[in-house]
Design a protein that fits this description.
- The chain is built from 19 helices and 21 strands.
- By secondary structure, it is α/β, with parallel strands linked by helices.
- Helix 11 runs parallel beside helix 12, helix 13 packs parallel to helix 14 and helix 16 packs parallel to helix 18.
- It is elongated.
Length: about 500
């Protein structure tokens, strides 16, 4: 039994330490806080017990003494416990109090430090907390002291007279008092002050003011907890060094409707541009229960002239069965191979297969035209694909005299996604765009979210489709896409979303 006190970092999941990641991957129980990124839970074991004990604005899901008891209890059950805390456990995180309780209970524990928001939040806002020209020291101060203490332990005179950068945690409710005390202690009223809200996350924003006006500016611009208060000359560098806030999608909520195992690429690309990504997989990709027909088709591959792949999923499932039969790409000897687009072609390359043909336009109609130009009319063609798919490609090839066989290698089913989070986020004005990468994502989205619900947000929530086929499906539900790239690819879709949502200069 052991408890690890893990620093989750300030919010950007990429700032988690390697050691903390290793602990999360092996822990039996994970006890996490409000400020720890939910994305970090994806690193946990699928069978791990996940317990939320967050505290937000005085609303405690579980009081601190009960959290302490919970850690002891789970450890005594012989479990490896990861206590995931926002920032660093020992920087205003009450991690030391939890460590003392564990020590008293005889429970083995280890601390894994995390990146504190006091450093990372200002850095993302373009503010170095020390600088040879402006500040050679820094002070971290709580803006919310223990209410049971007889008197404040903060020496305002010392803080006001020092040349240190001052970083206040949990101080937004007391911001007027903090400003007043520093000015009264002798700090000049025009000293630069910055507020950093949800630092390092997609909801990050900052504001620069002065000691005298910052409380009023905070009210005007709606700055609330969680926000850091940074006081000092280093704040002058914010406009010069601030690159993070120039990300085109920062603060924009974008829904990704692809299957969960495929959503990571588009989600990562959108997040890199600053978006708050809501993964809402409307479809799940599953292998067929009976693959005997696939085995039979693979056994007679030499009889075909062309092998045409219309999706990455078709590639993966076809080659999974090929490998399961102890065969490799040598089984494709003599066949020509086509891919409907660059992503599908790249998937083939992972198996050592270079496509003989990839159309310039990534739709079935262009594939037909290109195949016919290459003499596929009258040839025998095998198309590994989803169980349910458009018939344009096989129908048009058959009209040209080709002998086409459809090979179902997987199926798309409705994912078990709860629409409540998306509906609530739209109601709160946090969703700015919904992306659709295939017709099936459109159909299944509206199986989960009724069209009349989405119609309430026409004009505020933009709809992005990867191409004309998907757009046509969307139109069947009464919606016209706001965004559609010229190239029917995921990177082009991401670029089109960024162009549409980015603040106009």
């Amino acid at each position: 039994m052991k408890v690890y006190l893990l620093g989750a970092g300030p919010g950007d999941p990429g700032l988690l330490t390697r050691k903390a990641e290793d602990v999360l991957a092996t822990a039996d129980v994970v006890v996490y806080d409000y400020l720890a990124s939910p994305k970090l839970l994806d690193l946990c074991r699928p069978d791990a017990e996940i317990l939320y004990v967050g505290k937000k604005g005085g609303d405690h899901t579980l009081p601190q003494d009960k959290i302490n008891d919970l850690l002891v209890q789970k450890a005594r059950e012989g479990k490896i416990v990861a206590r995931l805390k926002g920032g660093d456990p020992y920087v205003f995180g009450r991690g030391a109090e939890e460590a003392e309780e564990l020590l008293e209970a005889g429970v083995d524990f280890e601390v894994v430090p995390g990146v504190t928001s006091a450093v990372a939040g200002p850095a993302y806002a373009g503010i170095p907390i020390t600088h040879r020209k402006y500040a050679s020291s820094v002070s971290f101060i709580t803006g919310h002291e223990d209410p049971t203490k007889a008197e404040s332990s903060i020496h305002w005179d010392a803080l006001a007279k020092s040349a240190s950068t001052l970083v206040f945690f949990m101080g937004m409710k007391n911001l007027p008092m903090i400003s007043k005390n520093l000015i009264a202690a002798g700090m000049r009223s025009d000293m630069p002050v910055a507020l950093v809200h949800w630092g390092t996350t997609c909801r990050h924003r900052s504001l620069v003011s002065t000691l005298e006006t910052v409380a009023e500016d905070a009210r005007t611009h709606g700055f609330k907890a969680p926000s850091l208060i940074v006081v000092g000359e280093v704040v002058q560098l914010r406009d010069t060094l601030n690159t993070f806030e120039r990300k085109p999608l920062l603060g924009k909520g974008v829904v990704v409707t692809r299957a969960r195992h495929q959503a990571s690429s588009i989600a990562e690309d959108l997040a890199e541009l600053g978006a708050c990504v809501y993964e809402f997989p409307t479809i799940a990709i599953e292998p067929l229960a009976d693959m005997t027909h696939v085995v039979a088709a693979i056994e007679k591959l030499p009889e075909y002239d062309w092998l045409v792949f219309t999706s990455v999923n078709g590639v993966w499932h076809f080659f999974a069965e090929l490998n399961a039969m102890d065969k490799d790409t040598r089984a494709l000897g003599g066949l020509k191979v086509a891919a409907i687009g660059p992503a599908t072609a790249e998937a083939l390359e992972e198996y050592g297969v270079i496509a003989d043909f990839v159309p310039e336009k990534y739709v079935a109609e262009s594939v037909v035209e290109g195949l016919l130009e290459r003499g596929a009319g009258g040839k025998k063609i095998l198309i590994p694909r989803a169980k349910e798919a458009r018939e344009v490609l096989p129908d048009e090839l058959r009209k040209a005299g080709a002998d086409v066989e459809i090979l179902s290698v997987y199926e798309t089913v409705l994912a078990e996604s709860g629409p409540e989070e998306i509906a609530e986020a739209m109601e709160a004005g946090e969703i700015h765009c919904i992306t659709f990468a295939s017709s099936s994502t459109v159909d299944n989205f509206f199986s989960l979210v009724k069209p009349e619900v989405l119609k309430k947000y026409t004009g505020t929530v933009k709809l992005a489709c990867i191409g004309p086929v998907t757009a046509k499906t969307l139109e069947s539900y009464g919606f016209t896409p706001d965004i559609q790239p010229e190239d029917y690819t995921i990177p082009a879709l991401v670029d089109a979303v960024a162009e549409a949502l980015a603040p106009k200069q």
